[in-house]
Amino acid sequence: MKKASGKQKLRPTSQLVKQAVFNMLGDIEGLTFFDLFAGTGQMGLMAEDRGAEVIFVEKDPKLAGSIRDKTGGHVFNMDVLNFLRSIEIMADVIFADPPYVYENYEELIDLSLKKLKEGGIFILEHSNKLDLGAPRKKVYGDTALSLWRKEI
């Protein structure tokens, strides 16, 4: 699969989906949380407010700079796949919200699952038209959340 090209319009996670994610996660205080394709950083900032140690990854330099102004967490201004290939840190929770036209889902899923601690959860937000083979999929209008848990 090839990468999507061109500038992508921001598509912030809806309030309903944000609430669903944090209800699923429960207490995340002290956990390591990756916010991939962070955009405005809203998911990571919510995780930070709940006590998680957050690492934001956003390719757009302006958006990454804006996140830096709002957080005490680490912000990586780089491609998500390159981040996942190079980072040594393992996560308890990985949340990824790539553009709906994203074409590297297989590699994203594979690399994310390799960066999860045992018992960790990977949540991938995407179009409800896609079936990415996750053990669990929750649909909220045109948005879906696919969920994987790394077995202990």
Which CATH class of the domain at 38-141 applies here?
A: Alpha Beta
- As residue ranges, the low-confidence spans are 1-8
Indicate the radius of gyration in whole angstroms: 14 Å
Structural class: alpha/beta
Overall CATH architecture of the domain at 38-141: 3-Layer(aba) Sandwich
pLDDT averaged over residues: 91
Main pleated sheet:
7 strands, mixed
Query: What is the fourth-level CATH superfamily of the domain at 38-141?
Result: Vaccinia Virus protein VP39
CATH fold label of the domain at 38-141:
Rossmann fold
Listing every helix as H and every strand as E from the N terminus to the C terminus, the arrangement reads HEHEHEHEHEEE
Q: Could you give the count of β-strands?
A: 7
Straight-line distance between termini: 31 Å
- Report the portion of residues in β strands: 25-35%
Adjacency order of strands in the biggest sheet: 3-2-1-4-5-7-6
Description:
This protein is α/β, with parallel strands linked by helices. It has a domain at 38-141: Rossmann fold, CATH 3.40.50. The chain has helices at residues 15-25, 42-49, 61-70, 80-86, 105-114, and strands at residues 32-36, 53-57, 74-76, 91-96, 116-127, 136-140, 143-149. It has a seven-stranded mixed β-sheet. A hairpin with a 2-residue loop joins strand 6 (136-140) and strand 7 (143-149). Helix 4 runs parallel beside helix 5 (105-114). It starts with 14 loop residues before the first helix and ends with a strand. Mean pLDDT is 91; it is low at 1-8.
